[in-house]
Amino acid sequence: MKKRKFMLSKGGKDFIASIIAIAAGLLIGLIILLFSNSKQAFPAFGMILKGGFTDGLVGIAQVFYLSTPIILTGLSVGFAFKTGLFNIGSSGQFTCGAFAAVYIGVKWTFLPGEIHWVVALIGALIAGALWGMVPGILKAVANVNEVITSIMMNYIGMYLVNILIVKYVYDPIKSQSVPVAKTAIIPKAGLDKLFQSNNINISIFIAILAVIVIYIVLNKTTFGFELKACGLSPDASRYAGINAKRNIILSMTIAGALSGLGGGLLYLAGSGKYMQVLDVLAPQGFNGISVALLGMSNPIGILFAGLFIGHITVGGNNIQLYDFVPEIVDIIIATIIYFGAFALLIKSIIGKIRRKPSETAPVKEEK
Fold first, then answer.
1. Dist CA 349 CA 296 (whole Å)
2. Which residues of the chain form beta strands (DSSP E)?
């Protein structure tokens, strides 16, 4: 009885839709493997499923490292979804946040070592917030579609950051940003020794804290209720006295802050990753869209969706051991990730299938 009740609940439908989307993505991935190298397809597929567990604690640390930024960008997109907005500018906000963190990490060495990394993360958060605020203002004041402005802000952010990297933090010999000061690197708190990996630090706990905060804001506060009300029905919320314009700006600002924080967490990890001058949008921003859809825009769901994406990414990278070229590996991972975006569509189909005929039949008027 409890099982049936769960299956019929909103959370149960979300869970089933996400599982079906994941299964479909894995199936398509298996088909691609079979076409690429049929003899090694099933062992490689098993490697993908094992994911981060293949290499023990080192693999799990890698899962946390890869998952942390996309949990934040997924949270950014999911938060905007909940308030009726489509934040497709997560990539630009992520890049701006990353640059702010790197700039402070390189230039602001006058800060005490205990707070240097904290200030750098706050800088990343503020930079992302400011970049997200622009589409919010245009949407609220001039009713400009936030999808269009977000896309343009992605490219503006990318080219602007390219210029700023060269001007302020560029190492021409290595064609990348110079290393941040050691005091700007996020503390590892002994996790590197526990997991025997330099890629892990307390970033995953910061991401989990962000998930908890956003969950509370959305579900336990009047402010969150007003944001969701504006998303569900802007006209009704205005009639109820809610300041819709203010909430649109705040929603996009908070979403941008989350993406910017994700950029700061990635580039202050001390894992040897540096910013480069490339004409390519940050993939973490677009992966965040899939994570948000797979997690049904629920903060808790987004956390697990991000960990899952990190898990299969580690597994996908390991299938090069079975003579699969890197391009095939990228295609497999991308297929599984982006198939997760169909979770919302699958949920809609499940809802139509389960709807009782009596609910869809027209109601006869009593004579």
1. 15
2. 170-171, 176-177
Long-range contacts of 269-274 (CB under 8 A, 24+ apart): 269/65, 269/185, 269/186, 269/199, 269/201, 269/203, 270/185, 270/186, 270/188, 270/198, 270/201, 271/65, 271/198, 271/199, 272/198, 274/174, 274/176, 274/177, 274/178, 274/179
For residues 155 and 170, is the Cβ–Cβ distance under 8 A?
no
CB 154 within 8 A of CB 91: yes
Whether 285 contacts 93, CB under 8 Å: yes
CA 189/CA 308 separation, integer angstroms: 24
This model's pTM is above 0.90: no
Phi, psi of 48 (to 5 degrees): -65, -45
Does position 365 have pLDDT exceeding 50, yes or no?
no
CB contact at 8 A, 122 and 266: no
347 contact partners, CB below 8 Å, separation of at least 6: 13, 14, 16, 17, 296
- Residue 75 and residue 66: Cα distance in Å, rounded? 15
Angle at 330 between CA 28 and CA 303, to 5 degrees: 80
CA angle, 53 then 75 then 169, to 5°: 85
The answer to whether residues 242 and 251 touch, using CB atoms and an 8 Å cutoff, is no
Q: How many CB atoms lie within 10 A of CB 115?
A: 11
Query: In whole angstroms, how large is the CA radius of gyration of the chain?
Result: 22
**What does the alpha-carbon distance between residue 131 and residue 252 come to, in Å, rounded to a whole number?**
9
Q: CA-CA distance, 217 to 223, in Å (whole number)? A: 7
Higher pLDDT, 333 or 23: 23
Region 91-99 average pLDDT: 96
334 has a pLDDT exceeding 90: no
